[in-house]
Structures are given as C-alpha cells and as structure tokens.
Design brief:
This protein has twelve helices and 14 strands. The protein is 34% helix and 19% strand. The longest helix is centred in the last third of the chain and has 15 residues. The chain is α/β, with parallel strands linked by helices. The protein binds iron/sulfur cluster. Iron/sulfur cluster binds next to loops.
C-alpha cells in the first residue's frame, strides 16, 4: 500500500523564533466546544458563541471591534486572547476578467495562494491546503521547492473568509475548490475540518455538492474520504493515460500507479453517487498527441466521468509550453467522438500568474533581486 507522503497530520503553525509574548490563539482554529468552554469560564452564556460565529461567517467581521452586539468587556477579552485572522495579505492581484489572487503570508512567514473567480453568477474560490507540495508534478510551480507543512483548519478557513470579504454585500461565495497549493488528501484532517465549517449552515453554508476536492489520487485517503460519507466532488488529476508518462509528469505515481487510483475513484463514485471528474493538464508536445487521446478514451471506457482538459499555463523557468490550437482541437475531437464528457477549461487570470504557486515564486524572486 503506498504510504501517504509528508507530514504528521495535525501539524500546526510552528512558533515564531524568539517571540517573547505568548501568541494569541487563532479564533478560526478554535472549535465550537473550545470557544464555548472559554466563554463559560468567564461567565458568559453559550449563545455568545453563536453570535461570534455569525459575525465571522455571515457578518464578515475581521476584528472583534465590529461585533457590535457583544458586550464591550467581552470584545476586549476576546481581542486579548484571540486573533480573528492571524495571516496577512502579502500581495493581491486582479486580472481583467475579475479574477483576484491573494498571496497570503502565514504567521510563521510561509506563503500560500488563494483565488476568487467570477463567472456569471458563480463566485468560486480556489484554496490552498499546504505550504508547498510534495507531489512534485513537473509542470507545477507549487511543488518546485517541496512541502514545508500542512495548513491548519484556521489557515484554510482564513483564506476562504479573506476571499469572501472581497465580494460586495449582495454577493456570496457559491463554490469551493481545494485545488490551490498542496495536495489536499495529504492534509485530510485539516481540509475536512475546514470544509465542515464551510458546509455548515451556521458557517459559510455551501453545499458539499458545490465543493470539490482535487487530488493526484492517494487511494488510502480517498477511501477515508468515502468513509466520511459527505458527498464532496472528487477531481482526480490524471495528466497522462499510462503509467510511464504519468510517472514522469506526476512522480508520486511511481509509488501508486494509475490502476489503484482509478479503482479508489470508482469506489468513491459508488459510495458518494457523485460523478467523478478527471483533470488533464494538456502540455504541448508531451501529452497532447492523438495516441494519448486514444489511450485516454480506452482508460475511461465504461466510466461515467467528466474530463476537464486544461491547456497548460506556462511557468517561468519550466520548459513546458501551451499546446497549439490544432492539437487542442484534435485532442478534443477524439475524446468527444469516443463519447467522453469533456470540458476544456478556459484559463482565467492569465496575466496574474493564475497557475498555483506562480505568484509565490514570482514574488520570492522579486524580493531576492
Ligand atoms: S499540481 Fe497540485 S499536486 Fe501537483 S505539485 Fe502542484 S500543487 Fe502539488
């Protein structure tokens, strides 16, 4: 059985070196029970926790000052003990199509990216789950320096709330995709804890059917996700139709292999009833040939899937290129002729380093030069 890569699963943000002051707790990392206990110890009734939650998730509060129906003394006590947000926005970029990308600097100096995409009525967000990534996909900026650590529940939620705060009052988040930096299934406890809040009607109130977890395919973690019984959408990044090519592009495949990934995905489909999505980043001259398209149709035969094909977004310093229009059209035609449900995703936010990990690298280089 392939071992899950990387870190201990409940790893939290490390302490800052040399900080004399005890650090405040991150409110978004504090469970409802822990908050209720904290309030009870100070003689406050349990309903105060509900008020605080409402301010956080629907009132869009980013400080205790704005929680106007809490007693002033409680607001002071909360501000002494907790941070509502404990990261900062190192950089924000907006593209012409309205896509906004935030480079979030975490409390220990690590950086992750998250994105708000506007598409018709949809307000989708793409959120990171780890600082860096251990999967090492050769075409991806996020994995170039490996993985530093898992994000905590609060750090994942903070990205969601920071993006929500960028919307006008009249708009709300509609979809969440765990497809930013990191492999979400390598940080399953943190990701599931954050998504529990995201789907809770007293949290962000987003149906699990509008939440997608994107993975390179870690079978044991897919099994755990299925056992959890919450019907999230699962998007499996294939990127190649055979083990030889996939192991080159997605090195973790050497330890796993395509077949076990597909078997785990099939079981997830059987238990959740949610249609599977497969992702395929189309790299010019690498995995965009007619032979690859035909092999892919054979691999997917008999499966009810949506195939998302994403023409590659070039990353500075990497040798991969966007496929030309002809090969994109040919690839599409072969899949469609074979009856595969296929969607070619538009690249949004091209001019703001929209591919995950790019903004972090770009900014890192600018700081270094
Ligand atoms: S594509 Fe996703 S899984 Fe692969 S290295 Fe990048 S962040 Fe990790």
């Amino acid at each position: 059985m392939p071992s899950l890569p990387v870190l201990s699963q409940n790893q939290s943000a490390p302490e800052e070196e040399g900080s004399a002051q005890p650090r405040k707790r991150h409110l978004l990392d504090t469970s409802d029970e822990a908050l209720a206990e904290w309030l009870a110890e100070r003689g406050y009734p349990a309903f105060r926790a509900k008020q605080i939650r409402r301010w956080l998730y629907t009132g869009r509060a980013d400080s205790f000052d704005t929680m106007s129906d809490l007693p002033a003394k409680l607001r002071l006590e909360l501000a002494e003990a907790f941070d509502v947000f404990n990261a900062s926005e190192a950089h924000v970029s907006t593209s012409r199509d309205g896509t906004e990308k935030i480079l979030v600097r975490l409390i220990d100096g690590g950086e992750v990216e998250c994105v708000l995409l506007r598409d018709g009525d949809r307000r989708s967000i793409c959120v990171s789950s780890q600082v860096g990534c251990a999967m090492g996909c050769v075409f991806c900026a996020s994995g170039l320096d490996g993985v530093d650590r898992n994000l905590t529940r609060g750090e994942i939620l903070e990205q969601m709330l920071r993006l929500q705060h960028r919307l006008p009052e009249s708009e709300r988040l509609s979809h969440i995709v765990m497809m930013g930096m990191g492999e979400p299934l390598a940080n399953l406890p943190g990701v599931l804890a954050a998504l529990d809040v995201a789907r809770n009607p007293e949290g962000l109130g987003i149906s699990p059917r509008r939440i997608t977890i994107s993975t390179v395919g870690l079978p044991p973690a897919i099994e755990k996700l299925a056992a959890g019984g919450v019907p999230y959408n699962l998007a499996v990044s294939l990127h190649a139709p055979n083990d030889e090519l996939r192991s080159e592009l997605v090195p973790v495949n050497k330890k796993i292999g395509i077949e076990p990934v597909l078997t785990a995905a099939d079981r997830y489909f059987a238990s959740s009833g949610r249609r599977l999505t497969f992702e395929y980043v189309l790299l010019g001259g690498i995995n965009d040939s007619e032979a690859c398209a035909h092999e892919l149709t054979r691999l997917l035969r008999g499966r009810s899937v949506m195939m998302n094909v994403i023409p590659y977004n070039p990353v500075e310093g990497l040798p991969y290129v966007t496929p030309n229009k002809e090969s994109i059209a040919r690839f599409r035609q072969i899949l469609e002729t074979a009856g595969v449900n296929v969607m070619f995703r538009q690249r949004k936010g091209d001019e703001i380093d929209a591919a995950c990990g790019q903004l972090r690298r770009h900014r890192g280089k600018q700081k270094a030069s």
